[in-house]
Design goal:
single chain; alpha+beta; six-stranded antiparallel sheet; 10 helices; 27% helix; 24% strand; globular; binds protoporphyrin IX containing FE
Length: 318
């Protein structure tokens, strides 16, 4: 049997634009409508791609742990839990867990919009939008801090699959992916008030061309010093599919981390926020803060298709 295929948005490099929506499924709702809309998302994506001429239109839908039970009527993959707050002093990553995550990306904002709108129309009044952010590629793939984002993201299908896609280790869930999402709000005036050299010490890379600082001079509080974690001689991996978002009033990044385990993201975020034995934390957190946080599982396209056959029945208790 061929290996289950991931949903289309998970692996390819993010397009120039993305729609990120987190959604609540209303209580007491008839879930058949939501099941059908989710199961038909890949087909709808192909339809909108054909209608708009945007061939590289990609989508994925993810489910929170409680929503998984309600919608699939079976236990979620082991390891999928609601996003729990992490805090140390003024640094807080709040948990704002909701039910569904819709991730769309392509090179066209209009194609993304038409797909998101049609998906929501298919869900009818069964879902409510909790958060909707529109990401865009900024300059030569720079975060709004001005630093190139993605330099060390896994590249190539093999590496990206290895980082993001569940294999045989979780029976029944192969081809799927854990995903954590967070909306971050930057304080750009505060960051930009620092010299370029000081900014580079915050990130751990050069601003112009993303060259890593030598270990001898890279501060232990630099972003990349906090998130690079080695276990058993191997670096923990996540696949980032984030993009900046902005209005003139508020700017930030919608952070999206796909992983074959949810643990890697959590360990990295913990090291960003919590002081270690030396009092070190990620100094990037002095200039930006997360205001939402959710965990989802994005099933393979094959598992998603089975939703259409599932009958409404009360969720089983864990
Ligand atoms: C405001 C939020 C964030 C910003 C602006 C940001 C920005 C950056 C930048 C500029 C880099 C260096 C270039 C690169 O390799 O991509 C980087 C690397 C990285 N970031 Fe973040 N990041 C943010 C949040 C996070 C979070 C929440 C995590 C995980 C919990 C994370 C994990 C990573 C990883 C794994 C790398 C690659 C490190 C390496 O191998 O060198 N980042 N980030």
């Amino acid at each position: 049997m061929p290996a289950p295929q991931p949903q289309s948005a998970v692996l390819p490099p993010t397009g120039k634009f993305a729609f990120y929506l987190t959604l609540r499924v209303k209580r007491g709702t008839r879930l058949g409508v939501v099941r059908r809309a989710c199961a038909e998302l890949p087909a709808l994506t192909r339809q909108v791609a054909a209608a708009t001429g945007e061939r590289k239109l990609f989508s994925a839908v993810g489910f929170g742990a409680a929503a998984w039970r309600r919608i699939f009527g079976s236990p979620p993959p082991p390891g999928l839990v609601p996003f729990r707050k992490i805090q140390d002093g003024p640094r807080v990553a709040p948990g704002t867990q909701v039910d569904l995550f819709l991730h769309i990306h392509s090179d066209r904002h209009d194609a993304n919009f038409h797909l998101a709108r049609r998906f929501l129309a298919a869900c009818g009044d069964a879902v409510r939008v909790f958060e909707e952010m529109h990401g865009f590629r900024n300059l030569d793939r720079r975060d709004l801090t001005g630093f190139i984002d993605g330099t060390e993201n896994p590249s190539g299908v093999k590496e990206r699959t290895e980082a993001a896609i569940v294999g045989a280790e979780i029976p029944g869930f192969a081809g799927g992916s854990f995903v954590s999402t967070q909306r971050w709000v930057h304080d750009l005036p505060r960051f930009e008030a620092r010299s370029v050299a000081a900014q580079e010490r915050v990130i751990g890379r050069s601003k112009a061309d993303s060259v890593e600082m030598d270990d001898a001079v890279k501060p232990p509080t630099a972003h990349i010093a906090r998130v690079v974690i080695e276990e058993n001689g191997k670096e923990l991996q996540i696949l980032r599919q984030s993009l900046p978002y902005a209005t003139t009033a508020q700017q930030g990044i919608f952070f999206v981390a796909y992983g074959r385990t949810p643990a890697n993201f959590r360990k990295m975020l913990t090291r960003m926020i919590r002081r270690d034995a030396h009092g070190h934390y990620d100094h990037l957190m002095d200039f930006t803060k997360p205001v939402s946080g959710c965990n989802f599982f994005v099933p393979s396209a094959d598992l998603l298709r089975t939703l259409i056959q599932r009958k409404a029945r009360p969720p089983r208790r864990a």
